Amino acid sequence: MLKMNIKKTFKFVILFFGFLFYTMSQCYANDEDTIVIVSKNKDSYWNSLFNGHIDRTFEKRFDMSFVSAPSYTREASFGIGGMATALYRVDRTDSVMVPSNITMTFNASINGFYALTAEGNHNFKGRRSRLSYQIAFFNKNLNFWGITYDDCNVNLISSYRRQQYKVSLNYQYELFKNFYTGALLDFSLVHASKIDEISYLLGQKRTYTATGLGLSLQYDSRDFIPNPKQGMYILLRETVYPEMLGNTGRTLWRTTLITDFYQKVWEGGIIAFDLYGQISSNNLPWTMREELGGNRMRGYYTGQYIDNNIVSGQIELRQHVVKRLGASAWIGGGSVFPSLQEFDVKKILPNYGVGLRFEIKHNVNGRVDFGLGKQTGGFVFGMNEVF
After folding, report:
1. CA-CA distance, 320 to 325, in Å (whole number)?
2. Which of 154, 123, 129, 157 is nearest to 143 (CA)?
3. 326 forms bridges with which residues in the sheet?
4. Is there a contact between 202 and 284 (Cβ–Cβ < 8 Å)?
5. What residues have CB less than 8 Å from 21, skipping those under 6 apart?
6. 335: buried, middle or exposed (CB in 10 Å: 19+, 13-18, 0-12)?
7. Which H, E and C letters describe 244-261, residue by residue?
8. pLDDT tier at 139, thresholds 50, 70, 90
């Protein structure tokens, strides 16, 4: 029954992404300005790629670019990926409001990894509210060390296959200048198969579903969410996962605190600071636990360190170099831990590295980072800045 449900869900995800991609392409194709460009320029794809950083959102319904290229990550190995990214304005007469953005990606690799994601920020007319969203499906063959920091530190490397479906919707309304209140809906389904060491799960189930309902308060003066150059962002969010809306066996909670700051230091140079913390119920299902790696601990293999809670911090210098090229360098650290009472400063892991940036759309960067840490290092490819 479980396999049948996963197959049905996978078919739905494929159909959904197909419909979303078709809708975007139709909006793109139906844009009168785009039709003119295509008729005048047979190399419109390359024109879009090489000139995509120019803001055309006042001319087009969707200012879109497509990119396809080989890819590499530590978790997925070598593969091929495709991306469609677009900026758009719901009110092209409003020159003050920043444009909305959407990014769709597909990636497949030689080790069986494949992923589909759609994420973005939709700014509603009037500049009082916005919707941030992420819809994703992953199939990954991953290394596995366990589900606690201590186990991950001593267990021999193992492996398993992970399938994950995720939907996250976050609506924010501006109460007064730069102060927002918000509501969150967060759904995830994770299934583990082909586990070499089932004992690493510590008796937990292979499959968990959970639905979170959250409320937030935030101060946000960033000039553009995907690539801020100035401003501050402070978020306090409380999320509850009711027992009846999943199979976790009990009601769970999660508290999130984020503090980000951005300041210009010289021509083309920006200092960015990030402090991130997430505290949750004790003994969470393994699928909901925090993993070092990804955006906030670049260079660590995602899942090499796992536990209930996480804290991390980093400071990054972002420097425009020439035309559409930029560079970055950062230093920071973080740790996962079972509870506040068991937090150990000695277990904080270091993180530092350098990266390159390429402006694909106006103020929307593709990035390549090389991160280093405790006995680890690796490349991270992605869209937009990490925070």
Report:
1. 6
2. 157
3. 320, 357
4. no
5. 84, 104
6. buried
7. HHCCCCCCEEEEEEEEEE
8. very high
Q: Is 241 exposed, middle or buried (0-12, 13-18, 19+ CB in 10 A)?
A: buried
Q: Which tens digits make up the pLDDT trace of 227-251?
A: 999 999 999 999 999 999 999 999 9
> What span, in angstroms and rounded, lies between the C-alpha atoms of 270 and 229?
7
pLDDT in tens, 105-114: 888 888 888 8
Express each pLDDT in 30-65 by its tens digit: 443 433 333 344 445 555 555 556 667 777 777 877
Q: What angle do CA 75, 77, 79 make, to 5 degrees?
A: 125
Integer angstrom CA distances of residue 365 from 50, 70, 114, 380, 381: 13, 17, 23, 14, 11
Nearest CA to 174 out of 133, 131, 230, 238 is that of: 131
39-76 burial, b if ≥16 CB within 10 A, otherwise e?
eeeeeeeeebeeebbeebbeebbbbbbbbeeebebbbb
